[in-house]
Amino acid sequence: MTLVVNHLMFVFRHNSKWPAASLLATLFLVLFLLSGCLAEPAKIQAYQGLTMGTTYTVKYVSSSEQDNFKSEIDSALKAVNQSMSTYIADSELSLINQAQIGHEQALSTELNYVLQLAQKISQESNGAFDITVGPLVNMWGFGPDGRVVKAPTDNEIQSLYDHVGYAKVNLHDGRLIKDTEIYLDLSAIAKGYGVDVIAELLEEKGIESYLVEIGGELRAKGLKPDGMEWRIAIETPTETFDRQIQKIIAVKDVGIATSGDYRNYFEENGVRFSHTIDPATGQPIKHKLASVTVLAQTCAEADAYATALMVMGAEDGYKFAQAHNIDAFFIVKNAQGFEEIMTPGFNNYLVR
């Protein structure tokens, strides 16, 4: 006798600490129930918890029910948060932001890695991804300072420009030299990095097949017990909480992240202001790109590239993705609803 159990997990980000996500994780778990005393087959084990102002889910394939990695997962995520959160006053990143000009700080290996990766993607994207945009994010009410109900004036925005620009981040030999006033915000890459940390922890434990998710950012490896790839549903970017699936992709050995402008925003006089800030203008994006999903080798890369493409918009983002061999899926608002645009490589992941 074979019993098939379908798990459809609707995963979404809270809007408190980290931008909203637009990925739904869909797992199809097949359990073989046979009479007699046959050995237990490999099956999916799962943990859930809270981290970084949102939720996490870890699923992995194992034939042993004795595995218990949850305490180690929680400890690893707590360490990432303590290093990279702007919401923790004494985090490693907050201490950098609070430091005076002229201060030099030795970086942990983990923070140095994330900062180096962020700078690399900033350079590639010509500043579309920029971790110094934090003051603008805060001014628009999407950071730790809390929400606003009124948009800042042009003068207020301009007053921050001397402190924004990825070239102002001075990294040298594992140290950050604060030679100008900057405020760093890693909310568009740290969550993805947290996913990678847990993925690597599982691999160190000998786990060869898993799906790790934090607030909608994911990393998949290997196959499920039924021999199929992990299936991920991309959400239709609507403002309601009546969630719909736009596309389903089958993945393994890849990081997945989505950036969108349709949940985390505020309105003033009928004008909607998205949480995604364009570093070039200091203002929320105004184009028609509603969401973009990126596949990359690591989730940290997918997370950052998704933000960069979201800032660029569909046309420039598509050109950038093609030029840098990034598999990406764009959902663009139009008069009829939504238009889908994808790179040729992304098309290979679609479930039809």
Automatic annotation (TrEMBL):
Family under the similarity heading: Belongs to the ApbE family.
Phylogenetic placement of the source organism: Bacteria, Pseudomonadati, Pseudomonadota, Gammaproteobacteria, Oceanospirillales
The protein's enzyme class: transferase
SUPFAM superfamilies from the UniProt entry: ApbE-like
Alphabetical keyword list: Cell inner membrane, Cell membrane, FAD, Flavoprotein, Lipoprotein, Magnesium, Membrane, Metal-binding, Palmitate, Signal, Transferase
UniProt entry tagged with the keyword Membrane: yes
Residue numbers binding Mg(2+): 188, 303, 307
Cofactor note: Magnesium. Can also use manganese.
Catalysis performed (reactions): L-threonyl-[protein] + FAD = FMN-L-threonyl-[protein] + AMP + H(+)
Cofactor list: Mg(2+); Mn(2+)
Enzyme Commission number(s) of this protein: 2.7.1.180
Assigned GO CC terms: plasma membrane
Pfam families: ApbE
Name of the protein in its database record: FAD:protein FMN transferase
GO molecular function list: metal ion binding; transferase activity
Subcellular locations according to the entry: Cell inner membrane
